[in-house]
Amino acid sequence: MNKVNLSEKLSLIKDFWNPHIAGELNGQMVKLVKFKGPFVWHHHDNEDELFLVVKGSFVMEFRDKNVQINEGEFIIVPRGVEHRPNAPEEVEVVLFEPATTLNTGNTRNELTREKLEHI
Amino acid sequence: MNKVNLSEKLSLIKDFWNPHIAGELNGQMVKLVKFKGPFVWHHHDNEDELFLVVKGSFVMEFRDKNVQINEGEFIIVPRGVEHRPNAPEEVEVVLFEPATTLNTGNTRNELTREKLEHI
User: Fold this and answer.
1) Which of A1, A50, A77 sits opposite B77 (nearest CB)?
2) By CB count within 10 A, which of B8, B17, B45, B118 is most buried?
3) Residue B13: inside a domain
4) Closest by Cα among A113, A103, A64, A69 to A89
5) Between B4, B68, B75, which is nearest A73 by CB?
């Protein structure tokens, strides 16, 4: 039952698109991640996914619209919905999602992270 | 799939200890709440609970220690652990917890909120 300081933990992350586990509760995980550039189009068959911006901003691209998520804002992407995060500049993000969630969803490629580190 | 601005939504909440539902995913809820003063001692039999401070700070009291949670920090209180949030000054908080969670846990009193409003 120690507290976690988001900015302190995020400052330890040096690479992009590599979620780190900062907490776990009720089978869900709190993950910290830095985005930069465009990710890959994907969806999650069984998991809804929450993205909360701690610092900076990014665009959540959907097939029919784009939504810019700024500092202090979150968006929930329901299971099954194709999406692609795209960050013109570096952005710090908190993810809330089930422990089972794979970062690239239904796809596997060089950005896939099978085993996440704790931070 | 609309984004939610935490500060904007929190500015609409005028009372204390009354969580409002700002999002739902995977059977979990994102709730926004303002604390002021001491709450009641309680625990949750089946739910772990996350508290993230958006603005201000509060003290999470446990039977054996106190932890001050500041802006940009979170704490996870595991199920079964007695706790009491105590906010000397008004504080804005995000809760992440199962949809079934009752705010006063194993107790019922004038602070219990059975039905939560969406915001």
Assistant:
1) A1
2) B17
3) yes
4) A69
5) B4
Structure tokens at B97: 């917890």
Residue B119 lies in a domain: no
Residue B51 domain flag:
yes
State the residue range of the domain holding B11. 6-93
Nearest to A26 among B7, B28, B69 (CB): B28
**Per the structure, how many domains does chain B have?**
1
Whether the predicted interface score ipTM is above 0.85 = yes
Question: A66-102: per-residue pLDDT in tens?
Answer: 999 999 999 999 999 999 999 999 999 999 999 889 9
CATH of the domain at B88: 2.60.120.10
Cβ(A22)–Cβ(A9) below 8 Å: yes
Q: For residue B107, which of B13, B18, B23, B43 has the smallest C-alpha distance? A: B43
Q: Across the interface, do B50 and A23 touch by the CB < 8 Å criterion?
A: yes
Residue B10, classed as helix, strand or coil, is: helix
SS (H, E, C) B50-81: EEEEEECEEEEECCCCEEEEECCEEEEECCCC
Contacts of A67 in chain B (CB under 8 A): 1-3
Interface of A with B in 50-109 (CB under 8 A): 50, 54, 60, 62, 67-70, 72-78, 81, 96-98
Is A14 within a domain? yes
Residues of B in contact with A1 (CB under 8 A): 62, 67, 75-78, 81
